[in-house]
Structure formats: C-alpha cells, structure tokens
C-alpha cells in the first residue's frame, strides 16, 4: 500500500476533520494497547520489552500531535502543512515531538533553538564539550533500544575508536532503576490522550482548533503564558459547544498547561553534518 498521508492536504476542512478524527481514534487505541502491554511486561521483569513498547506508544502518540498541528497550520501555508503531515512516518520528527512535549520553554524562539540542536546528524560532546563525535541523539537512542549493532566508540578520532557489539540488553542495563519503570507516563502520551479525552480531536473540536489557531500570530517572541491563554481559549470555546461535559479536569489541565507551541513552522528533518567538519573543530580547539 502507498503512504497517502500528504493527500489530507487536498481535503476541504469538513472532510479533513472527519479523516483526522478517525485516524486519531485508531492511534489512541494503539497507544493504549502498547502502553498497557508495556506495564504488563514490566510487572514480569521484562524490562527491555517493556521499554520497547513504551517507546513505540510514545511514537504513536506523537502522531496525534502531528495531525493536530496540521489542523493548526493556516490555510495559506500549504507547503508547511504538507511538510508537517510528512513527519507522520519520520522517526526523528516523531522523536522531536515527544521531546518537545516535555519542555516548558519561555517562548517560541527557545523551543525552536532546542529543536535545531536535536536535528543534527552528528554533534560534539564530552568532558570539554568537543572530545567525541556522536550520532543524532534521538535516532541513536531509538536504535539502542531496538537493535543489535556493531559500532565504534564515541572517540571518532580518525576512525580509530574501539569497535564493539551494542544491543538492547546493554542499553537497558541501567534502566531498571529509572522512573519510567514506575507509573511515569511520557508527556507525549499524556497530551495525546488529553486532547482525545477533551474531544479536541473530534471533528467539532478540530473545527474549533482551526478557528483559533489558524489565525493566531505565531511569532518568535510568543511567550509560553500567551500559549497557555490560547490553549485556555480553545477549551472555553469547546465548553461553550458542549464538548467538555463529563471530561476529567486533569485532561483539561493537561491541554491548558502542557499543549506545546505548534511546530508546523519548523523544519524537523535531519540536519546533515560532515564528520570531517567536526574533526576540524576539534583540531582547531585543541591547538589553541
């Protein structure tokens, strides 16, 4: 089957909202099944398998945030809307959405700067900040919990680093004491479920989101407090339309306080970097 997610751009709003509402229902069902299964595996001490399912649930939840961002995108920004929908199948972009859901930046510029650093194909790090070259953190973390690989150590000093086998068992050895093994829920999952629980992802809710957000001025200086006000106004309109009856207060609070800035204006694709350029930086810094 051919992936057709970008064809949603061609639909008029009424049909678009219906299609997205149907898709979100299916995604939320998948998120709940995966996340519930991860808890079941955790109880049997199957920590690696639990982590894999939890990460998959988080990726699925990010799809909800991507679809809703496409609705928040103005009608005259079809190129950005198509690009955003294209992230539906992109592991890096979904990882960025999952990470962004954890943040509470001061303004839109701050989250934009943070995302630019997450896009880098390679980056320098270590005790002095430039000691070693590492691959993209989001993609590498994802692969470390899924696959066995034969890799070279982070020294990257002209290709002379030590080679060794890396596998999910090794990556998860330290995870058995981390908070996620308790009842911690990744923010992307909490937010996706909250949007669904408040009926924001139903056709009428999506229509309200479009009416507010497509005309909102998304400037770099937009403060998080202003974002919360837009979130609150969205909830008020939904309440006036009777969409919030019997909705848990926690779900409304999550949408109000944790729904992140729209990311549709930002490029979330991999930013290509040559290792030789980073090695040149290492050389110049070490010679000073």
Characterization of this structure:
The protein has 288 residues and is mainly alpha-helical. The chain has a domain at 6-103 and 183-258. The chain has helices spanning 13-43, 47-72, 78-86, 91-100, 108-118, 137-144, 168-172, 187-197, 203-213, 224-240, 249-258, 275-286, and strands at 122-125, 132-135, 149-152, 163-166. The strands form 2 sheets. Strands 1-2 form a two-stranded antiparallel sheet. A two-stranded antiparallel sheet has the order 3-4. A hairpin with a 6-residue loop joins strand 1 and strand 2 (132-135). Helix 1 (13-43) crosses helix 9, helix 2 packs across helix 4 and helix 9 packs across helix 10. The relative contact order is 0.15. Mean pLDDT is 90; it is low at 171-182.
């Amino acid at each position: 089957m051919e992936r057709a997610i970008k064809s949603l751009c061609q639909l008029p709003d009424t049909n678009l909202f219906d299609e997205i509402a149907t898709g979100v229902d299916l995604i939320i069902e998948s998120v709940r099944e995966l996340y519930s299964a991860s808890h079941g595996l955790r109880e049997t001490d199957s920590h690696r398998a639990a982590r894999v399912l939890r990460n998959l649930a988080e990726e699925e939840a990010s799809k909800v945030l991507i679809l809703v961002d496409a609705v928040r995108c103005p009608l005259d920004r079809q190129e950005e809307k198509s690009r955003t929908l294209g992230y539906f199948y992109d592991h890096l972009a979904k990882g960025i959405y999952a990470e962004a859901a954890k943040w509470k930046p001061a303004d839109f510029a701050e989250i934009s700067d943070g995302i630019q650093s997450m896009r880098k194909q390679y980056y320098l790090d270590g005790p002095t900040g430039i000691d070693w070259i590492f691959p993209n953190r989001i993609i590498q973390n994802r692969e470390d919990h899924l696959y066995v690989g034969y890799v070279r150590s982070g020294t990257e000093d002209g290709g002379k680093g030590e080679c060794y086998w890396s596998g999910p068992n090794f990556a998860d050895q330290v995870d058995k004491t981390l908070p996620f093994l308790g009842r911690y829920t990744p923010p992307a999952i909490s937010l996706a479920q909250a949007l669904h629980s408040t009926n924001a992802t139903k056709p009428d809710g999506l229509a309200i989101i479009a009416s507010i957000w497509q005309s909102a001025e998304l400037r770099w200086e937009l403060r998080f407090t202003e974002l919360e006000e837009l979130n609150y106004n969205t909830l008020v309109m939904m309440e006036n339309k009777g969409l919030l009856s019997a909705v848990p207060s926690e779900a409304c609070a999550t949408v109000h306080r944790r729904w992140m800035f729209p990311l549709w204006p930002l490029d979330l694709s991999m930013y290509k970097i040559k290792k030789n350029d980073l090695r040149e930086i290492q050389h110049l810094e070490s010679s000073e």
